[in-house]
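Supplementary Methods, section 5.1.

A reviewer requested that the exact input to the structure prediction be made available. We therefore reproduce it here, unchanged from the version used in the analyses.
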Amino acid sequence: MTRMTTDYNAIAQQYKKCKEHPWRSRIETYSLMNRIGNLEGKRVLDVACGEGFYTRKLRQSGAEEVVGIDLSEAMIQLARDQESRDPLGITYHIEDACAESARQEFDLVVSAWLLVYARNQAELSAMCRGLASRVRSGGRFVTFTGNPNLYTFKDADYRKYGFSIRRTDHAYEGAPIVWTVHLDDCSFEIENYHLPIEAYESAFMEAGFSDFAVHLPEVSPHPQGVDDGPFWSEYLASPPAVLIDCVKR
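The structure derived from this sequence is encoded token-by-token as follows.
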């Protein structure tokens, strides 16, 4: 099990609310769903599903079956409450992503902000083995995750997007990266950890994946046709997150 410093049971409601930040929809959701592509007829697992934001979106986008798992009891309860109010046929389980499964039945495994909690190569490898154990041969894993090159963006200021990032003076394995998420009435912190991109590729290849690829995020067109490109220019020039896509051998 990967032990997270951030207590998601304590911040479950605030974390759910921060999904309302424009960058979450205009960049994160847009980029992840574009990368995933056609979901029709697919069996999909959302790992580290939180309150079910992407789990529901995956189902609404055409997936035949969707399951969500998360380590946080409070997050899973929020997801189940939403499913009770507005049922989509999704099931949720309290489950550790690092625990290996014998099922290997999903066509697609998706995750937003899972890999950032690996503090070293061993924990990352355990995550990748857990992911590999849940996806069928030929299936895909797609994630939106922290950018391993974040340390090269020394002068980037993300405060106008609703968050700020605090890093150590230099990059090293497991270096803490603290995101402060700013809401209208409060702020909260989430601690991530740095690993180089080579560590990610190695862990996925060893776990049985191939076609490892990293993609930069994109911003969606403004819904009212407004040219707001300059507002997003700093995020896109110094992206704090990337997408990883790979295929199970």
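Helices lie at 8-18, 22-36, 53-60, 73-85, 121-132, 197-207, 229-237. These observations are discussed further in the main text.
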